[in-house]
Structure formats: structure tokens, C-alpha cells
Design brief:
With about 240 residues, the chain is α/β, with parallel strands linked by helices. Helices cover about 45% and strands about 15% of the residues. α1 (about 15-25) crosses α8 and α4 (about 105-130) runs parallel beside α6 (about 150-170). About 45% of the residues are buried. The mean pLDDT is about 95. The structure holds NADP nicotinamide-adenine-dinucleotide phosphate (NAP). NADP nicotinamide-adenine-dinucleotide phosphate binds near residues 11, 17, 61, 62 and 190.
Length: about 240
């Protein structure tokens, strides 16, 4: 289905990003992973993707750093070719009530979660514009739609992603490029292993469980596919009914 396509997945060394990379590879895409994680984690992800018969490369890249992203995209172009699919998944949390939240807690979360997506889209935009095709999928969160006590920085970054998504969708629609966001609720990853109030949140989820990363990956793969060509500027909740 995605044979010959090149996909860039940020934060792809582990968690949801790795599940997305594997699912896109299963669908036939070659994969570039951008991450700040350890080289061992990068190599492990690359070998899992390669075992599926696809080309894969790991790039050490801090998405919040414009020049680091620019250099990584340059390298990806040389190594794999011009990208077709961009998944902005890299994200961090620095949760605290706003009263205790430090300026650097706010700046770092906005820097990775929101500016990181701007930085990669800035690189992908001209490539997709010239190709007259492309898929951009940004990972937001229900926290960006509902707000969440203790997450002023995170919620703002994830709400910002929605505005960015809709704007890019409008700017690139004439070039046959779609841009959508997904808004997961809770997903079982290292980010949600343990946190205060976990039981309470579980009770607030109508489906009474967290999502598996693979379930998020299936939605991203659909949005990245040819079949999703008439969906753009959309925000799709995948939250077990939590935010309905
Ligand atoms: P995760 O397990 O913490 O993995 C995040 C990945 O991103 C890690 O590999 C991390 O590297 C990498 N990363 C962090 N900062 C980066 C940077 N500056 N540049 C490049 N890569 C960076 O997170 P996850 O749970 O898979 O979440 C993935 C995305 O889904 C995030 O955007 C998150 O906000 C969103 N989301 C998650 C949930 C959830 O319940 N888990 C719910 C809604 C939305 P390190 O290994 O060095 O940390």
C-alpha cells in the first residue's frame, strides 16, 4: 500500500512513535526515525523495521532545535530520498500546577511538542508542495482539547498543534497534501506508567482501559494512506470515549 513511500517519524525510538514506525513499515513504507533517545534504542527500532523488509535509518535529532532538524532532513534526503509522510509524534511532559510551573517547564514543553512540529513541517512543506502529494499527521492529545489541571504547558502545546494542523491543511490542500491531527486519551507507554490519579482517570474512560500504542499506530497508518485522501484539517480523538 505504501510501497516506495518514505515516512519520517519523530520520537520513533520507543513508545507510540515506534509502534507508528512499525505499522507504516508493515504497510510498505521506508522509515526515518528522528529522536533524542539512546543510539541503542535507535538501533533496536531500526532492526525491528528492517526485519519487515523495509529500509530504516535512525537520526539523532532534537526536534525543538531548528538547525538540528534541518540537518536531519538534509541527511534523510541523501540516504532515503524525498519524504511522503511526516508524523510529528515526539513529545514530553513537565507536569505541575501552574503555580509551581517554572518558565523552563513551559518553554521546554512548547519547544518540543509545538515548535518541534513547526520545525519538521518547515522542512517537509516545500518537498510535499513540489511533489504535489503528502501526508502530515500530528500527535495532539485530548489534553489539548479539554485542558487538564497540572498540564498548562502540555495542554497549550497540544492545542497549538491543532491550530498548526488546520492552518497547514488549508495552505497545502491545493497541492494535494493533507494534514491531520490525532488526539489520544491515555496510551500505555512509559509516559503513563505511573502518575497521580491514574485510577480516577481509568474510571473516567468509558471503555475502562488505556489504548495500546498499536491502536494509535493503526489510525495514523490510515491517515497516511491513499484511502484517507479526502480527510484534511481533522482532529480525530482516540480516547476510549473519554472526551465525548
Ligand atoms: P514516550 O514513551 O515518552 O516517547 C517519546 C519519544 O520521543 C522518546 O523516544 C523520546 O526520547 C522522544 N523525544 C523526546 N524529546 C524529543 C526531542 N526533543 N526530539 C526528538 N525526540 C524526542 O512518549 P509516548 O507516550 O510514546 O508519546 C508519544 C506522543 O503521543 C507524544 O507527543 C505524547 O504527547 C502523545 N500522547 C501520549 C499519550 C499517552 O498516554 N502516552 C496520550 C496522548 C498523547 P527519550 O527516550 O530520550 O525520552
Amino acid at each position: 500500500m505504501m510501497e516506495g513511500k518514505i515516512a519520517v517519524v519523530t520520537g520513533g525510538f520507543r513508545g507510540i512513535g515506534k509502534a507508528i514506525a512499525l505499522e507504516l513499515a508493515r504497510n510498505g513504507a521506508d522509515i526515518a526515525l528522528l529522536d533524542v533517545g539512546s543510539s541503542e534504542a535507535g538501533e533496536a527500532a531500526v532492526s525491528e523495521i528492517s526485519a519487515l523488509g523495509r529500509r530504516a535509518k535512525a537520526y539523532s535529532c532534537d526536534v525543538s532545535d531548528f538547525s538540528s532538524v534541518e540537518a536531519a532532513f538534509q541527511k534523510i534526503g541523501e540516504d532515503l530520498g524525498k519524504l511522503d509522510i511526516l508524523v510529528n509524534n515526539a513529545g514530553i511532559t513537565r507536569d505541575k500546577l501552574l503555580l509551581a510551573m517554572k518558565e523552563e517547564d513551559f518553554d521546554s514543553v512548547i519547544g518540543v511538542n509545538l515548535k518541534g512540529a513547526f520545525n519538521t513541517i518547515k522542512q517537509a512543506y516545500p518537498i510535499m508542495m513540489r511533489k504535489r502529494s503528502g501526508r502530515i499527521i500530528n500527535v495532539s492529545s485530548v489534553s489539548g482539547m479539554m485542558g487538564n489541571a497540572g498540564q498548562a504547558n502540555y495542554s497549550a502545546s497540544k492545542a497549538g498543534i491543532i491550530g498548526l494542523t488546520k492552518t497547514v491543511a488549508k495552505e497545502l490542500a491545493g497541492r494535494n497534501v493533507t494534514c491531520n491531527a490525532i488526539a489520544p486519551g491515555f496510551v500505555s507507554t512509559d509516559m503513563t506508567v505511573d502518575f497521580e490519579g491514574k485510577e480516577e482517570f481509568l474510571n473516567a474512560i468509558p471503555l475502562k482501559r488505556f489504548a495500546k500504542p498499536e491502536e494509535i499506530a493503526k489510525l495514523v497508518a490510515f491517515l497516511a494512506s491513499e484511502d484517507a485522501g479526502y480527510i484534511t484539517g481533522e482532529v480525530i480523538r482516540i480516547d476510549g470515549g473519554m472526551a465525548m
